[in-house]
Fold this sequence. Notes:
The protein has one helix at about 30-40, and strands at about 5-10, 25, 30, 45-50, 70-75, 85-90, 95-100. The protein is mainly beta and about 110 residues long.
Amino acid sequence: MSVFALIPAAGSGSRLSKKQPKQYAALAGKPMLWHAIRAVCMPPVESVFVVLAPGDKAFARHDWKAFKGKLEPLYCGGETRVGVGVLVLRDGSDVGYQAPATQNPT
């Protein structure tokens, strides 16, 4: 069975009020996105797909060698947030989606 992870990272960082998107803000000397990738880039996950904004140029400026052969950037993110979570695709047929916890569940 093939297992993949998808990390949405197409945000602009406007709510963070920084010069760069928060996924590239430094945390322990590495971009926050690096730590997110590291968290899911372990067996049984074969590949990690990172959804980036179409015009994202910052991704290429960072060192992703630790994830060689497992990291696939996708430059297809939308302009707004629509459902944030972790999507895992298994063999292209069984799809599991874990949505983030809400502050006011109904």
